């Protein structure tokens, strides 16, 4: 018998555009022999289902149900494809936990913590073979000294909103005089900021998922861009970045990043599919942790679909196994 699944898309941040594209990929590839899928839009105007031949139908938030043609539809599980808030920061996860409806992502606590780059770094520090850049975390109304930050950290450094995605509000500072401008830009996005020393090296991203009860590390992707860093334009504009999947690195390096990625997944108590970003220094020397994305993009050109294909899996099989893992837990 088919399971009834809600595919949740949209969101309340600028990342909703990517979310809609991710949901389209998932909807096209999920096994309709196994799952009856209803795409639910969540935005500032409400939560609703929009059939192709009808007007929007509101979701009853009391029990996350849908009434269609006089029939009440309740969902066996939720595939969350919302990047940013409220899909990635734990809000929706807490809601579904209270309703006892399983979902595809990390739980509320992990989702909430991993949205904060500084807190995440503190948890993954100490993992074997993994390094973290020296950093300072500051608060908008806190007592911080620009002179002290400049004394503590070596140029250049990255200034990042602590909560957020798609590199929005992020700057690379190469001259100390530019620090204040970079802080103003980041504080427009968040009340907490992470200032990190720049690590010179190659950038990699690797997907990790739990499938059939086992942690599976997907083939890594190397990301190269002519821009100062992998910013919003480089992430979402075709041709700005070069992505190589699987990455051209030695077998020992592949084994090392797989070991690190699996350990990060376990240390942060992850579920579903996540994506972890690293910098690799020197001649395939040390891996440095950048960040984790607990609801990675699933657009046709996103990293996870690339890595799934490189592993020899179809997206249909991958998404079906993700849903099976969700519903069995």
UniProtKB/TrEMBL annotation:
Residues 122-324 form the ATP-grasp domain. Pathway: Cell wall biogenesis; peptidoglycan biosynthesis. InterPro entries: ATP-grasp, ATP_grasp_subdomain_1, D-Ala_lig_Van_CS, D_ala_D_ala, Dala_Dala_lig_C, Dala_Dala_lig_N, PreATP-grasp_dom_sf. It holds the Pfam family Dala_Dala_lig_C. Its EC number is 6.3.2.4. Its main location: cytoplasm. It is found in: Cytoplasm. Its cofactor is Mg(2+); Mn(2+). One of its GO terms (molecular function) is D-alanine-D-alanine ligase activity. Keywords: ATP-binding, Cell shape, Cell wall biogenesis/degradation, Cytoplasm, Ligase, Nucleotide-binding, Peptidoglycan synthesis. It catalyses: 2 D-alanine + ATP = D-alanyl-D-alanine + ADP + phosphate + H(+). Signal peptide: none annotated. Cell wall formation. NCBIfam families: D_ala_D_alaTIGR, PRK01372.1, PRK01966.1-3, PRK01966.1-4. Belongs to the D-alanine--D-alanine ligase family. PANTHER family: D-ALANINE--D-ALANINE LIGASE (PTHR23132), D-ALANINE--D-ALANINE LIGASE B (PTHR23132:SF23). This is D-alanine--D-alanine ligase. It comes from Pedobacter punctiformis. The lineage of its organism: Bacteria, Pseudomonadati, Bacteroidota, Sphingobacteriia, Sphingobacteriales.
